[in-house]
């Protein structure tokens, strides 16, 4: 993704509080110039997508009753547009799989930025992806390999446990490492931790 990536984002959310909150948040993402349109009804969403060809649609899964991304794509031609679910409660695996990605209402700026950049930059290679670890993710890797639990990490960093779990999921996806041993080796090799800091 270029240094100043311009993205057209539609927020489909009936709650003015959530819609305005996401709008403000997305305008603050580093390295992204976001042109935001907020819509409150399914009819407005159809009209907006047809006339604006957005890069991303951020939508509440209950928008207009039950929002179905597959049906929406069939009814509206939106090219390579990515459809991201606003996760308020836990979505079922089946429902989550219908979307290109998920953003929780309690995700922090780093997590939201990483999620949007990864969706809009599929051409990024593995080495670039590894280099894109945020400072927060490196901090969490350090604490994980030192043996701390998710709750302990959450308490230490003043985060919710959900946010810690989301960060760990992003780390596993970026590094393609799914074991504590693998993560420990990665942390030592990349000088995130010193071997003396790890409990063996």
Our count of helices gives: 10
Mean pLDDT: 83
Name the beta content range: 15-25%
The largest beta-sheet arranges its strands as 2-1-3-4-5
Give the distance, in angstroms, between the N- and C-terminal Cα atoms.
Answer: 39 Å
pLDDT under 50 segments (min length 5)?
A: 122-130
Could you say which structural class the secondary elements and strand pairing correspond to? alpha/beta
Rg: 18 Å
Helix content: 40-55%
Briefly say what this structure is.
With 200 residues, this protein is an alpha/beta fold. 48% of the residues lie in helices and 15% in strands. Mean pLDDT is 83; it is low at 122-130.
Detailed description of the structure:
By secondary structure, the chain is of the alpha/beta class. 48% of the residues lie in helices and 15% in strands. It is built from 10 helices and 5 strands; from the N terminus they run βαβαβαβαβαααααα. It has helices at 16-27, 42-52, 69-75, 93-96, 109-120, 126-131, 135-145, 150-157, 161-175, 180-189; strands spanning 5-12, 32-39, 56-59, 82-87, 101-104. The chain has a 5-stranded parallel sheet. Helix 7 crosses helix 10 (180-189) and helix 8 (150-157) crosses helix 9. Mean pLDDT is 83; it is low at 122-130.
């Amino acid at each position: 993704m270029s240094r100043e990536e311009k993205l057209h984002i539609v927020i489909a959310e009936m709650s003015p509080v959530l819609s305005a909150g996401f709008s403000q948040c997305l305008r603050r993402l580093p390295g992204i110039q976001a042109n935001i349109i907020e819509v409150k009804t399914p009819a407005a969403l159809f009209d907006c997508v047809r006339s604006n060809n957005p890069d991303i649609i951020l939508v509440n899964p209950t928008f207009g009753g039950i929002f179905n991304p597959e049906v929406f794509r069939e009814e509206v031609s939106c090219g390579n547009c990515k459809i991201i679910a606003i996760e308020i409660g836990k979505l079922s695996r089946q429902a989550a799989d219908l979307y290109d990605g998920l953003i929780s209402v309690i995700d922090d700026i780093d997590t939201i930025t990483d999620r949007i950049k990864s969706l809009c930059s599929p051409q990024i290679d593995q080495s670039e992806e590894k280099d894109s670890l945020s400072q927060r993710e490196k901090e969490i890797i350090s604490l994980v390999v030192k043996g701390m639990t998710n709750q302990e990490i959450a308490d230490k960093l003043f985060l919710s446990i959900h946010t810690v779990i989301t960060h760990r999921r992003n780390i596993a996806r970026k590094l393609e490492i799914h074991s504590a041993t693998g993560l420990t080796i990665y942390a030592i090799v990349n000088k995130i931790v010193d071997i003396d800091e790890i409990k063996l």
